[in-house]
Amino acid sequence: MYTFAIIIEVIVAVLLIIVVLMQSSKGGGLAGAFGSGNVGAVFGVRRTSDFLVKATQVLATVFIVLALMINLWLLPRGAATRESVIQQSVPAPASLPPSGAPATTPNP
């Protein structure tokens, strides 16, 4: 189920990117590169704009809901908790000379 939800999330993300890039901005946007004149002739200029805005809203909502659903219910969780490096105890040194004794160095 997790893999299926991730695949759907990726598809929705790609569709959202495409719909956002197809919207015309002040400079014409990417919609002009794909021949937006043909799309406008089919739907009409105003209807095309309304359709793209509505599609953006729906895809953004689906994207957010899927992301929350995956993180809250479908994300695989580890059974065991792991300690961080900071939480692990530091082992005591093997042997230290007494505080008043001089340190000895081994002779080769």
- Poorly predicted parts: none
Q: Radius of gyration, Cα only, in angstroms?
A: 31 Å
Shape: rod-shaped
N/C terminus separation: 66 Å
Number of strands: 0
Oligomeric composition of the shown chains: single chain
Mean pLDDT level: 77
Order of helices and strands: HHH
* Count of helix runs: 3
Which structural category fits the helices and strands? mainly alpha
Biggest sheet architecture: none
Strand residue percentage = under 5%
Portion of residues in helices? 40-55%
Helix-strand blueprint:
Layout (H helix, E strand, L loop, with lengths): L1 H21 L13 H8 L1 H30 L34
Helix pairs in contact: 1-3, 2-3
Question: Can you characterise this structure?
Answer:
This protein has a domain at 2-13 and 33-74. Helix 1 (2-22) runs antiparallel to helix 3 and helix 2 packs across helix 3. By secondary structure, the chain is an all-alpha fold. The protein has helices at 2-22, 36-43, 45-74.
What's the short version?
This protein has helices at residues 2-22, 36-43, 45-74. It is an all-alpha fold and 108 residues long. The longest helix has 30 residues, at 45-74.
Entry keywords:
108 residues; mainly alpha; 3 helices; rod-shaped
